[in-house]
């Protein structure tokens, strides 16, 4: 996997680069602002980018804006946003415009290399990955009726883990279920949410989006 890192913290960029050198991820560019990020993406066409939310010059939302611009102009480039900030608005802004190939993790997660590499792999495969803390916050703020309410408690547990970016095998390990049982739960989730697309990948992403933003979700195939 070829990766570009964008963060105004030099030490973080260097640390991530060193960490990822021990994996099959190749950091092909490391930059400090959104403008340089977009230039690097246009030049190198990486598989994915890691981007901070708040970067120069204003340190507001340059990272999110750059992420959306990159996904629009380079749809084959996946985006993983890292942030110090536990603010669900940023995650929703990212997800509202993209069905897949995006992720949002808190920076504290990068200390676990396996979590970071798995998130990168998943977004490059077209999935969306959201930090578990953000998922919990979004769920606690749900105020409108949602198709998710039709799901059983176990199905909601499975869908929550899907939202966090876990594979079927990861869900099996988390919930101590067999692969066949997890597949059955996911099939029931798709059916109850009326997701009838022919590819499981698209249905998986759309199910997660319904879970995270129920008031705006579409429930037809």
Alpha-carbon Rg, integer = 17 Å
The CATH topology of the largest domain comes to Rossmann fold
Q: State the distance separating the first and last CA atoms.
A: 32 Å
Could you say what the CATH architecture of the largest domain is? 3-Layer(aba) Sandwich
Looking at the structure, what is the overall shape? globular
For the biggest β-sheet, the strand order reads 2-1-3-4-5-6
Low confidence ranges? 214-221
Mean of all residue-level pLDDT scores: 85
Name given to the CATH homologous superfamily of the largest domain: Response regulator
Helical percentage: 40-55%
Quick description:
This protein has helices spanning 10-20, 34-44, 62-73, 88-96, 113-124, 132-140, 153-163, 168-175, 179-192, 200-212, and strands spanning 2-6, 26-31, 48-52, 78-83, 102-106, 128-130.
Question: What does the model show?
Answer:
With 221 residues, the chain is an alpha/beta fold. The chain folds into two domains: 2-136, Response regulator (Rossmann fold, 3-Layer(aba) Sandwich), CATH 3.40.50.2300; 142-216, Arc Repressor Mutant, subunit A (Orthogonal Bundle). The protein has helices spanning 10-20, 34-44, 62-73, 88-96, 113-124, 132-140, 153-163, 168-175, 179-192, 200-212; strands at residues 2-6, 26-31, 48-52, 78-83, 102-106, 128-130. The chain has a six-stranded parallel beta sheet with strand order 2-1-3-4-5-6, with helices on both faces. α8 packs across α9 (179-192). Mean pLDDT is 85; it is low at 214-221.
